[in-house]
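Students often ask why we bother encoding 3D structure as a string. The short answer is that it lets us treat folding as translation between two languages. Here is a chain of 665 residues written in the first language.
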Amino acid sequence: MEEEIKDEVELQNNEYSEDSIKVLEGLEAVRLRPAMYIGDVGERGLHHLIHEVVDNSIDEVLAGFCTNIKVTLHSDGSCSCEDNGRGIPVGPHPIKKISTLEVVMCTLHAGGKFDKGSYKVSGGLHGVGVSCVNALAINAKATIFRDGKIYEQTYEQGIPKTQVIEKGTTKKTGTLIRFTPDPSIFKTVDFRFSKVADRLRQLAFLNPQVVIELFDERDGRQEKFHFKGGLLDFIKYIDQNVNHLSKPILITGSGTNGHDVDVQVEICLQYNTGYNENVLSYVNNINTLEGGTHVSGFRSALTRTLNVYAEKFTKNNKVKLTGDDFREGLTAIISIKVPEPQFEGQTKTKLGNGEVEGIVRTIVNEKLAMYLDQEPKEAKKIIEKASLAAEARNAARKSRELVRRKNALEGSTLPGKLADCSLQTPEDTEIYIVEGDSAGGSAKQGRDRRFQAILPLKGKILNVQKAREAKILENDEIKAIITALGAGFGVDFDPDKSRYGKVILMADADVDGSHIRTLLLTLFFIYMRDMIHQGKLFIAQPPLYKLKKGKLEYYAYNERERDEIIQRIRKEMASKKGFEISEEDTGETMTNDGISISRFKGLGEMNPEQLWQTTMNPESRTLLKVTIDNAAEAAHTFEMLMGDKVEPRREFIEANAQYVKNLDI
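And here it is in the second language, the structure alphabet:
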């Protein structure tokens, strides 16, 4: 026994010794843990590579040296970004003693962002951007136009393959970076034109002085983004699908942060006849999804200024107006430029600079009050809108109290149709919100009762994009969702109080199922958005096809997987003469030489065992996490799909009908 213990100690020492401490040189750390630097290795992380390169060009725009940016998605799978800025310096670095270009491209935390003389305002504060792109690219090339000459250097997986070479002369200045994402790192290396366009459009709105062009060599598509009106054009774009109540109000100004450094503030706001608040905030062109001190400063100033005006110029107010009332039907874009922003974490989703709140509050108080005095008709519309909102708020208060949970374990009674789980620790539990009683029955029987709860919905919930809160809280299915989660609703919503760590939307893979998912996503986006920000909202992925050969069953989640399974079976049966599955056979349900292929039309078609195996078993299921990469585009899309105006929705359907597959009628 003692000998066995001795052997175990020696084994442990061998496993953890001085040799076990590894030092990652250069960009090895980025390749080993890419998600630490770009978020993930899926589609989101892939497009983040483009963002990092483009953001460097935008920094040149902010510094006043760049007016044109060109992004190209090449047919070979690479992407290039060219600007007409100053060009990355190529001379010897004073400390590293190698080309400064190589330092920038191959060294973490190296860049002009740390030198206040180079960039007074910058989105990239950590100096990891372009070097991370280089590390995660199978190959890359930097071409610099500077001092009348052209310089070039090539790289493979972040390692220089050539010295910086002088390639000729030129009259232009700027930087051209071209890179090919490494397929061994990313789950997909297929850039999406629309996703790239969304980000470039946003940057063009925020920087009216720049022209940004996007070209796609793969299919010839191209777009040009240039908005001289800046935030005025931005708010028109966001609110193009709603009925306007007021004209856009533009507020600009600056203030010092206590160190004689200006903080530039630009805000555009407009009211519409809807009921939802839509505030988009940016710091140095970075979308601060979780807000921060600039947003709190704006909101407090908006409430105070409008309240002062309402008390001064209106009489017989039946109810006291609050910030919520003044924000009903409000769309606002807040863009500030801060020399030294303090973000909460590398994700940069919330601003923490305390001095910014006071600067924004002072500017909004002064400029908005001046506007209200100069535009009394517009001011009257806004106050009347807020008064109606206050009356509706009071009517909704009782409805909200009926569905509000005091905490995760007590309060109002849980919905009778909820099949709860036995565990009560949120981090260990999940709830499936399921379309239909039939599918709900299968899910209840197939689930793991320890940690999986099931809430079946009857029919389609209310479209919350077009309804006031009081009406929303009268909807039985929405009340069931709110009560089951136990995290509140709207301004009271707190995702940390949710009774479940994961909320999973599970609907059929047909038109009705897509509509139900969209209605549910609209509910979460508008009234429970922090559930999305915290990464707790998911969409289940039930299979589309079942293939059976003898006693063996296979499940496919899309046409590509179906065809791959067919090919695999074909190879296994290659010895059988005459076996063949024609293209037209891969349809609804068929049998062909011993293999059957059926398409599921709904979750209710699957028995409990099949539903567990394909869609609910954590070991084998596929879940899509719902994220908000671009709040502006998300708000624009929800308003287009779920808002009052029919024409934009019709145009969207006509433009995208060609891409629809498996349309069930």
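Translate back mentally: Residues 28-225 form a domain with the Heat Shock Protein 90 fold (CATH 3.30.565.10). Keep this in mind for the problem set.
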